[in-house]
Amino acid sequence: MPIWHLVCSIAVIGLNKMENKQNDKFDILARLAILGSKGRDLDKVAESSLALASKYVGLTAASFFLWDEKLTVSTSVNSFQSDESGKVLKKLEKELFKDLRNKKNLISAYLSFDTTPPTHSFTLPLRYKDKIFGAVIGLQEGERTLISEDKFLESLSALISLNYAVSLGTDQSSINTETINKERTAAIVELAVTVNHEVNNPLTAILGNIQLLLLKRDDLDDDLIKKLKIMEESANKIKDVTQKLLNLTNVKSVEYIKGTNMLDLSSED
Fold this sequence. Notes:
Helices cover about 60% and strands about 20% of the residues. With about 270 residues, the chain is an alpha+beta fold.
């Protein structure tokens, strides 16, 4: 084989490997984004993403933490190739990363240790807006360095952060029900004010004219009087409903027809 053929073949093989590597990276981040968009449980999303990322980057151990305002861990997910690598990573978290976060406000770090084989580790924040609520950490052994994959790892932690933010927005247990009810009530009262303004004005005119006609009942036949009283009663019911909407303090719904609800005004005075 001519030397230039050999060089071209090696170059093509190298480009194919690079392309496959980029595809793997894209596939991992895409899977994580898709899982999050489907509202999957955060623990499962984190476990899946850590396993895929560990394989791609060559991590022997990886962990994901969520903590409260006092940095006390509330949730953790691990992906360890072996018990030994898991112990090493846990030791790094306990003796180094955690201490630096508490005492030195550590946010992120890439570290290499002169061991046999060489050991590399990282910690990256889980952050949404200005709040840091957790971290992703990992361990790698060998000559390969984690810093070469910094953009991928940072994208990974950013996607986990977004998934966490989404889970807070969709998890009914994390929503302040009282706040939501107040907002719903305020919106309904605003609507009621509009209804009162747009409905009560013409309704008052209708009622006024009905009552004027009823004052002349001596000139009206019984059938017309009966119809006018029905109209008066109906108009007063409409007036009562708009008044109940204005006085609404507790938003409750009842089923109107299958698949459709309506406000329950039966308990409103």
